[in-house]
Write a structure and sequence with these properties.
single chain, mainly alpha, 62% helix
């Protein structure tokens, strides 16, 4: 059971860190990170999530139980991907204000 939980956490953290790391490493500071909108912060958050994933994976001892371990890790990646797909359409950090859209993007009022 510990293997499954830690492997799930490893997959979840790796899947969660990937969008932050990719956005930050490509210079995109607009990716909504938990600590602000900055390319550097996104790289730091993504890297930290990768480190947590590696630690969880190390303690999961997946070689002792490979099928449930890999399945749990894949489920963790899937779950966090579905969470991102649903929440990142809007502002995923509701307590933070979003940037106002340019005037050209405003719908015409009648």
């Amino acid at each position: 059971m510990t293997t499954v939980l830690l492997a799930f956490a490893a997959g979840f953290c790796a899947g969660n860190g990937l969008p932050y790391f990719v956005a930050g490493s490509t210079g995109d500071g607009g990716n909504p990170g938990p600590f602000g909108e900055s390319a550097v912060l996104n790289v730091v958050v993504g890297s930290a999530m990768f480190v947590v994933a590696m630690i969880c994976w190390q303690f999961a001892v997946v070689p002792a139980d490979p099928m449930p371990g890999y399945a749990a890790a894949a489920a963790g990646v899937l779950v966090v991907g579905l969470i991102h797909a649903r929440n990142w359409r809007n502002n995923p950090w509701p307590w933070r204000k979003t940037k106002a859209s340019p005037e050209g993007d405003q719908p015409a009022s009648t």
